[in-house]
Structure formats: C-alpha cells, structure tokens
Amino acid sequence: MNPTALAIHGGCGVMARLDLAEDEWIAARADLGRSLEAGWAVLTAGGSALDAVEAAVVVMEDSPHFNAGHGAALNTDGEHELDAAIMNGADLAAGSVTLARRIRNPIRAARAVMEAQEAVMLGGPAADAFAAGAGLDIVEPSYFTTERRVAALSAMKRHQAAGTAAKASEAEKHG
Amino acid sequence: TVGAVALDSAGTLAAATSTGGYTNKPAGRIGDSPIIGAGTYARNGVCAVSGTGKGEYFIRHAVAHEIASRMAYLGESLEDAASKVIHQDLKPHDIGAGLVAVGADGAITAPYNTDGMFRGWVLPGGRMFVASHAEVFDLATLP
Lengths: 175, 143
Prior knowledge:
The structure holds two protein chains of two kinds. Chain A contains six helices and four strands, in the order E-H-H-E-E-H-E-H-H-H. Chain A is α+β, with helices and mostly antiparallel strands. Chain A has a three-stranded mixed β-sheet with strand order 2-3-4. In chain A, strand 2 (about 80-90) and strand 3 (about 95-100) form a beta hairpin. The longest helix of chain A has 23 residues, at about 20-45. The model of chain A has no long low-confidence stretch (mean pLDDT about 90). Chain B is of the alpha+beta class. In chain B, the strands form three sheets. Chain B has a four-stranded antiparallel β-sheet. In chain B, strands 7-8-9 form a three-stranded antiparallel β-sheet, with no helix packed on it. Chain B has a two-stranded antiparallel sheet with strand order 1-2. In chain B, strand 8 (about 125-130) and strand 9 (about 135-140) form a beta hairpin. Chain B is globular. The chains are: A alpha+beta, B alpha+beta. Strand 2 of chain A pairs antiparallel with strand 2 (about 15-20) of chain B, so a sheet runs across the interface.
C-alpha cells in the first residue's frame, strides 16, 4: 500500500493564537484534531483523498472557531457569502460554489457541483438552489453567525468611521 | 479560511478549501478559495494545495497552480516551490498568506508569512500534530 498523507489549515494571521483566549485556543485545537481524525479515518479505511479532504473540511465548517460555515465572517452588509472548492488530482475534476448564503456545508456543495459535471463553479442563488436540489442541508443565514463575527464587523465599522481601518487586527478582519 | 490536502493509498491527491471571506468584505466579492488554480489545486504525480490569505493576490499569482508548475516544469521540491511562492512571489505585496500542500510522495509543507497559521498534519503511522505558531502539539497517535 502506498503512503497516505493528510494536512489541514484553519487560517493564518495574528489571530492564529494571539487573539484567542486560552479556552478558545484549546477548543480550536480540539476541533483541528477532530478534523484530522475525520480525514485520517477515511484514508486508513482505504477511502479516497477526495472523501478525506471533504470530511476534514466539514468538521472545520461546523466549528465556530474558523472562518468557514458556522463562524464565517460577515460582509459589509452584515451578511454571509460562502465560498468553497474541491479538486481531484486523478482526473483534474473540480467543483466550487461562491457567494452561497444557505448551504450548511459549502464543501459538500462544491463536491456535488464537481460530480454533476455540468459546471466547475456555481454562484449565488444558483449555488444555493443547486445544493437544495442535491439534497444537501440548507439552513437560515443566521446559522452561520457567531457573536465573535458580529463584534468583529462592528469593530471594523468603527475603524472605518474613525479612519483607522488599516489598524484593525487580524481577529477583527478574519476572526 | 479552512482547507485540507490529502494523498490516498491509490496515489491520488485531492484538495479542498472553504471560507467566509473576510470581515467587512465588499458584498459580492469572490476570493481565491473557489478559484481552481488560485486557492485550490490538485494534480496527481505533483501536489495538492489549499491556501489562506489575501485572495486577490492568490488569484493574480495563480498560487496553487504556480506551485504545481514549479514542481512539474522546474523540478523543484514541494517545500521549495511552496516557500518561494509564499516568501518571495507574494512578499512585495506585504499581505498575509499561507497554505498547506502535500506531494505525490506524501511530503507535507505548510509555509506562512504571518505571525501564525492554524494547521495540522498526520505523519505516516498516525501521529497527529496541530499548531498555531511555532508551538506544536503532539495530540495523539491515530489508529
């Protein structure tokens, strides 16, 4: 059997630790571990790399500690617009969704787009509608919102009003 | 932004990325994550890449595909190709950037140019590590 390998990231910047309270970092660390466990379980069972990366990303999308899915950042209108992509190195098949608002796990929608083979990328309401038609979990946009992201947007608005947006911390920008 | 890259026992590589963009981003703005070749890319025999950072520059530099191209056409190692893109190509832009990548041989790299990056990996044999800055936590050995 060939070697297997798995790696994940949960975002970069100062927020990767310094802006987190100790209990938040412990919780984020635990979720990173759960993400690795999910992906590794697929690989050690002889599953595909595609299934492994999807499983790993779903865990982080469901965690409030990362900027994806539940816990995603808010745009200038105070709304969520979610992007995701997945790619299979075996045949260069790929799928992505962008500006999605109601798909609980956008990475699952990207996978569905890839497998449908009619498009590589679907955007906005079409992406949401496609995901619903594919039987994926659809949620209210408020599902994605956390207090941390609301506070971050408020802080950014204050920085904008004061003309100090460039001084906003990574946590305020990315959470 | 979150992402994952993997190599399976059949030798297939895959990459996945998901994001909410950034706080106060313009409505309708699309970053690099859903752009194949920018924030996400995989090609068997070469590498799989998932990125995080200022997406506009990942798109302009076609970062994930650039790493694969350096490896395929110049023969660079995974670590060298990824490091050059993060620490040299993107350096003049003074933007935060990072990525995880896995090669066809199972090599893993995770360069970043910010103060830290949430990341994790599993070594052959199942030892699992997570990290944010230089501090690395050996969590467990997975079955």
